[in-house]
Design a protein that fits this description.
alpha/beta, Rossmann fold, 7 helices, about 20% strand, binds 2-amino-2-deoxy-6-O-phosphono-alpha-D-glucopyranose, hydrolase, NagB/RpiA_transferase-like, Glucosamine6P_isomerase, Glucosamine-6-phosphate deaminase
């Protein structure tokens, strides 16, 4: 059963999630965070940076695993998720860069990148709290409709709507990579706590399907219903179809 929290706005959601993460880090200074990219978690990262700047939490031992990465962007490309996670999470929070991993989207190493990532998560003792956004198509991470609910980290092809949504970050829509490497739905379900965030009416349908629809591979977000500890935090607009 998912717990559903409807908040006033993204800022309130960010404060709420940041509060949970701060308590987690106080209990477990080497906590393992599951990090999402996209605009949805930004308020959480901002609130968390504010709490950390107050100075009473030591985050040097905090570890992190990003959900996904594009395949084939040159190292250091500003829109690679490695760059995004560095810019939006590692630097503002003051995390130790070596302790934050992103799947390896280098085509030369892609054959073993999924298995390596899974092994690294297991070696870290698993993810304590996984932050999730949701795509218009219902994807979580880059697990598009049709992804197996048992899937592990692997290469996937991006759908046309997802490439179109992400085109805003690139000079031309053609520059959006065709492939990605993403934690699987099975990987995500192994995290100890899932926090699914969504804001705005464009997400209302995906949220209704995730929270109240049948659990099905055609709505990857619905997999959160299989998890014993899921918190869904949405604003009124994203809750409109519930
Ligand atoms: C991207 C990411 C997802 C993210 C989603 C929603 O494609 N791979 O992890 O949840 O799209 O993005 P946004 O939060 O910007 O709406």
């Amino acid at each position: 059963m998912a717990e559903l929290v409807i908040v006033e706005d993204e800022r309130a959601a960010g404060e709420l999630v940041a509060g949970s993460i701060v308590s987690l880090i106080r209990r477990k200074p080497d906590a393992v965070l599951g990090l999402a990219t996209g605009s949805t978690p930004l308020a959480t990262y901002r609130a968390l940076a504010g709490r950390i700047a107050e100075g009473s939490i030591d985050v040097r031992g905090v570890r992190g695993f990003a959900l996904d990465e594009y395949v084939g962007l040159p190292a250091g490309h500003p829109e690679s998720y490695r760059s995004v996670i560095t810019r939006e999470v590692v630097e503002p929070l003051g995390l130790t860069p070596e302790l934050v991993r992103v799947p390896n989207g280098d085509p030369e190493q892609i054959q073993h990148a999924g298995a390596d990532y899974e092994a690294a998560i297991v070696a870290a003792g698993g993810i304590d709290i996984q932050i999730l956004g949701i795509g218009r198509t219902g994807h979580i991470g880059f697990n598009e409709p049709g992804s197996s609910l048992a899937s592990l980290t692997r290469v996937k092809t991006l759908t046309a709507p997802t490439r179109a949504d992400n085109a805003r970050f690139f000079d031309s829509p053609d520059d959006v990579p065709m492939h990605c490497i993403t934690q699987g739905i099975g990987t995500i379900l192994r995290a100890r706590h899932l926090v699914l965030l969504a804001f705005g009416e464009a997400k209302a349908e995906a949220i209704a399907a995730a929270v109240e629809g049948p659990v099905t591979a055609s709505q990857p977000g619905s997999a959160v219903q299989l998890h014993p500890h899921t918190t869904v935090i949405v604003d009124e607009a994203a809750a409109a179809r519930l």
